[in-house]
Amino acid sequence: MNEVSSSVALPVDLQPAPWSGRNDGEGPEHRRWWQAVRPYDAAGLGEAVAAVSASGRRPAVLIGFCSDEGVRRNKGRTGASAAPAALRAALGPLAFHLEREVFDAGDVVVETGRDGEPGDLEGGQERCGDAIATLLDAGALTLTLGGGHETAFASYLGVADTERTANVRVGVLNLDAHFDLRAEDRASSGTPFLQMARAEAAAGRTLEYAVVGISQPNNTLALFRRADELGVRYLLDEYATRETAESFVEDFLDGLDAVYLTIDLDVLPAAVAPGVSAPAALGVPLEVIVAVVRRVAASGKLVHADIAELNPTYDVDARTARVAARLVDTILT
């Protein structure tokens, strides 16, 4: 495993993010997330990478992507720009059982458009992608806290640009009620996977894309046709039991060397995840999503993950934030 030197720095400036939580003591047996997470520094990451044991648990680095612009362009309910802070607030008090170091690099903040003027979504995605690629090349497992699902294209830019994925077969696994394959004049939260497919085609590759949780009534016939044209594999929400979902994911992972996992929280039932732009009428049970996440994490093929579409404005008793926090903890376990 390659080490990194203390001279490796992120190519962009990120805003620092505060952590807080209950304090039961300072010893390792009392640790909670807010006590365990370290502010990112290149030297610290380099030491953590060098110390990785045979377990293969790379140090993880969190990056917040504070973006509403993609949801605004997609005519959804805005509020996801506040999600990284809400997710950290839900993570902070959780007991820390991970056998890996976790760093927080801070937030990429995307300017939201006002009065008909477009925000700088594309610039924010590029900045986030540059940070992700740098951290992946340094040996980290990266996890982005979104943000609308425009977060996914920022993640793709980072995964596509790292040496970790050069000359290997990479797949994108999306847990989502929607394909997000809209053909629009400009990027939004509804376009990231078509953007990925076009970028891969331009590079002479085919996007390996699979989705668990597709809601048939919430995707038009045109989107299903586009998915078929692109060779997208998908499992409908109404058929997503633990057995079928795990089998679907195993088949997808079997042909890959590396995988990027993206979770749109609207894949979950509205009662479980009310704080999203588009709550699900049916959704995939949380226990099924957790089982899928565990399979991906245990595969040894995960290079990057993100959580998207948490909208604190519409959350109920931080219910969605708590679910998102639990998923982050599961991904890194």
Strand count? 9
Number of helices: 11
- Mean pLDDT level: 94
Largest sheet: 9 strands, parallel
First and last CA, distance: 20 Å
**For the CA atoms, what is the radius of gyration?**
18 Å
Q: Strand arrangement, largest sheet? A: 1-3-2-4-9-8-5-6-7
**Uncertain segments of ≥5 residues (pLDDT<50)?**
1-7
- The proportion of strand residues reads 15-25%
Report on the structure:
The protein is of the alpha/beta class. Helix content is 35%, strand content 16%. Helix 5 (121-137) crosses helix 6.
Features:
333 residues; nine-stranded parallel β-sheet; disordered N terminus
Compile the SSE list and pairings.
Elements: H1 33-36, E1 38-39, H2 42-50, E2 60-66, H3 69-73, H4 83-91, E3 102-109, H5 121-137, E4 141-146, H6 151-161, E5 170-175, H7 192-202, E6 208-214, H8 221-229, E7 233-236, H9 242-254, E8 258-264, H10 286-298, E9 302-308, H11 319-332
Parallel strand pairs: 1-3, 2-3, 2-4, 4-9, 5-6, 5-8, 6-7, 8-9
